């Protein structure tokens, strides 16, 4: 099945993590987000994959450079998802084609079912359909129509953002501009539903990675898929429990306890006397030092948490440096889910535990206390002994 992967977007809701990289290249366990999408599609039966790049397109091309099935087209301006598929139109054969977002993870079995079903759309049951594109199906499992974020949803079946369109849909991509000024793929879907050909194919597991806490969830998922492998240097007095991967060129020193799933990437170091637990990614060249606890977090390449610190349910960008004694709060005393500002709006993460988001090159002074849900922008600084309750440097 020829497959179009949309990876031209900017990822503004993921800022500051996308200040210096396009969202498709953010790290998810052992590869970038878009590599997971391409690899799952390939395993599910994609024959050719046309990746649409745009914003910071070279970084996306580099991330996928060694994938043989991949070719690239450029969307000059990010004018919407239908416009993005239109950029790929000339590269498509006269045959059905799949469309996947470059920032949504699916399980392989579900994608295989979608590919095998012929024209169809991936659907999922959710508890809050009013926040999604709600699908109307008939008794034969065909999708009859789609309503975007309706006040009164007709069902709890929603559009999971994976499609196989009939060959004729190449001519349906020229939709009119929507109210929000974009050319939207849901309008192409609506036209395809009218044709009566689109089947509803249930998707077992999917994750739309749009906001920072969803990047954490993506890492929880993909780290959980790793099998134990110890290629790096591990001191005999370290205890590695469960699915832990220590890559070649990484080191784990004496007194360290790592409870998997966890991935310590090449060039990274952990310990002595550190405790790493939950689903944690210690990126290339990152460092977790003496008496540091890291729980359920993503440390991007070169991030350093050197001494006497606690990092929980957090994302630290590239080359972040936490001063000694930096402590992250990840739980509200009122037990409400932690809120994070996304494009200025306080937004519930839906997580009881969430720590902080640090853009690349953030540096904290010693004994900094960071409140749950705080975002530190790229290059932000804190002084010694500061308690940070509000976002900084965004
Ligand atoms: P979105 O999630 O709507 O956009 P985005 O990824 O840029 O993120 P944000 O809203 O935070 O800025 O896009 C869905 C998918 O479609 C995503 O994989 C990016 C892709 N896309 C394009 O390829 N071209 C486009 O013009 C748009 C709007 C999105």
Structure report:
It catalyses: N-acetyl-alpha-D-glucosamine 1-phosphate + UTP + H(+) = UDP-N-acetyl-alpha-D-glucosamine + diphosphate; alpha-D-glucosamine 1-phosphate + acetyl-CoA = N-acetyl-alpha-D-glucosamine 1-phosphate + CoA + H(+). Its EC number is 2.3.1.157, 2.7.7.23. The protein is of the alpha/beta class and 394 residues long. The protein has two domains: 2-210, Spore Coat Polysaccharide Biosynthesis Protein SpsA, Chain A (Alpha-Beta Complex); 222-388, Hexapeptide repeat proteins (UDP N-Acetylglucosamine Acyltransferase, domain 1, 3 Solenoid). It is built from six helices and 38 strands. The protein has an eight-stranded parallel sheet. Helix 1 packs across helix 4 (108-116) and helix 3 crosses helix 5. The model has no long low-confidence stretch (mean pLDDT 96). It binds thymidine-5'-triphosphate. Thymidine-5'-triphosphate (TTP) is lined by residues 6-14, 23, 52, 54, 75, 78-81, 83-84, 101-103, 182, 210. Thymidine-5'-triphosphate is lined by residues 6-14, 23, 52, 54, 75, 78-81, 83-84, 101-103, 182, 210.
């Amino acid at each position: 099945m020829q497959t179009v992967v949309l990876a031209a977007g900017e990822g503004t809701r993921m800022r500051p993590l996308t200040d210096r990289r396009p969202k498709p290249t953010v790290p998810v366990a052992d590869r970038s987000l878009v590599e997971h999408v391409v690899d799952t599609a390939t395993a599910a039966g994609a024959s050719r994959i046309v990746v649409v790049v745009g914003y910071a397109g070279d970084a996306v091309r580099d991330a996928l450079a060694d994938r043989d099935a991949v070719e690239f087209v450029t969307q000059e301006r990010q004018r919407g998802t239908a416009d993005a598929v239109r950029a790929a139109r000339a590269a498509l054969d006269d045959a059905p084609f799949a469309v996947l977002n470059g920032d949504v993870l699916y399980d392989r079995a579900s994608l295989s079912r979608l590919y095998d079903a012929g024209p169809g759309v991936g659907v999922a049951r959710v508890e809050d359909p009013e926040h999604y594109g709600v699908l109307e199906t008939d008794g034969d499992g065909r999708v009859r129509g789609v309503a975007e974020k309706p006040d009164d949803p007709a069902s709890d079946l929603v559009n999971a953002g994976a499609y196989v369109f009939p060959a004729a849909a190449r001519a349906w991509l020229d939709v009119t501009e929507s109210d929000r000024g974009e050319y939207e793929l849901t309008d192409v879907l609506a036209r395809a539903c009218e044709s009566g050909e689109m089947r509803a194919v249930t998707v077992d597991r999917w994750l739309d990675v749009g906001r920072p806490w969803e990047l954490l969830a993506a890492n929880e998922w993909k780290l959980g898929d790793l099998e134990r492998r110890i290629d790096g240097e591990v001191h005999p007095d370290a205890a590695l429990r469960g699915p832990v991967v220590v890559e070649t060129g990484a080191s784990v020193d004496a007194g360290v306890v790592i409870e998997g799933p966890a991935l310590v990437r090449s060039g990274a170091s952990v310990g002595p006397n550190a405790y790493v637990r939950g689903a944690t990614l210690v990126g290339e060249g990152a460092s977790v030092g003496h008496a540091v606890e890291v729980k359920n977090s993503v440390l991007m390449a070169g991030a350093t948490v050197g001494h006497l610190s606690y990092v929980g349910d957090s994302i630290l960008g590239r080359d972040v440096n936490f001063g000694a004694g930096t402590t992250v709060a990840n739980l509200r005393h009122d037990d409400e889910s932690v809120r994070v500002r996304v494009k200025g709006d306080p937004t519930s993460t839906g997580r009881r535990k969430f720590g902080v988001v640090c853009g690349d090159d953030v540096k904290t002074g010693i004994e900094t206390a960071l409140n749950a849900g705080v975002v530190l922008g790229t290059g932000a600084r804190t002084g010694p002994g500061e308690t940070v309750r509000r976002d900084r440097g965004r």
